[in-house]
TrEMBL record:
Belongs to the beta-class carbonic anhydrase family. InterPro entries: Carbonic_anhydrase (IPR001765), Carbonic_anhydrase_sf (IPR036874). This is carbonic anhydrase. Its EC number is 4.2.1.1. The keyword Metal-binding applies. It catalyses: hydrogencarbonate + H(+) = CO2 + H2O. It comes from the Bacteria. It holds the Pfam family Pro_CA. Its cofactor is Zn(2+). It comes from Sporosarcina siberiensis. SMART domains: Pro_CA.
């Protein structure tokens, strides 16, 4: 059985037995927050539970490293839509200890791409177009600094409401303990 067929089989039973009913909610976050966090599998259930969040409480955006890499990229767009359209009043950027993005080897990733069939000449084409793959794939050295940088990017974005607190935290992926790196309430501009 393939992964897809296994998922679809389970899904059919899930729907048939109306197991979805206990997750019913609206598109608006009940706690009026949006969270940007890492896609690390250890955080899937641990982070929401460690924050006392249930289905419907928050908008949760996931990306590698919980990093806002571009002020007009998809992550920032999702945060702005959460604030202006989906009634989120606070932003939480939550990185975590032992993040894979802190030890990423871009040269190895590029080698893996070539090994899986990506034409090596594509990297020269991209470089000539102004895209540096090593820079684009690059992670970070320190999760605390990365969280601070993402908080600054969001907080100082020209389209962000300056009255919205933007918090920065770092989670322990084993215990769920949260360390506050940036208390967004202290930085809110009136």
């Amino acid at each position: 059985m393939t992964t897809l067929s296994s998922i679809l089989e389970f899904n059919a039973e899930f729907v048939k037995h109306k197991k979805y009913e206990k997750y019913a909610t609206t598109k608006f976050p009940d706690k009026r927050i949006v969270i940007l966090t890492c896609m690390d599998t250890r955080l899937t259930e641990l982070l929401p539970r460690s924050m006392n969040l249930r289905n419907g409480d928050a908008k949760i955006i996931k990306s590698a490293g919980a990093v806002v890499t571009h002020p007009f990229g998809g992550i920032m767009r999702s945060i702005l839509i959460s604030v202006y359209e989906l009634q989120a009043d606070e932003v939480f950027i939550i990185g975590h200890q032992d993040c894979g993005m802190s030890s990423i080897d871009t040269k190895t990733i590029i080698k893996d791409m070539v090994h899986r069939g990506i034409d090596e000449s594509l990297f020269n084409t991209l470089k000539n177009s102004g895209i540096d793959m090593e820079d684009w794939l690059r992670g970070f050295n320190d999760v605390t600094d990365s969280v601070k940088q993402s908080v600054d990017t969001v907080r100082n974005h020209p389209l962000m409401d300056p009255r919205v607190p933007v918090h920065g935290l770092v989670s322990n992926p084993e215990t769920g303990h949260l360390d506050v790196i940036v208390d967004g309430y202290t930085l809110v501009r009136k």
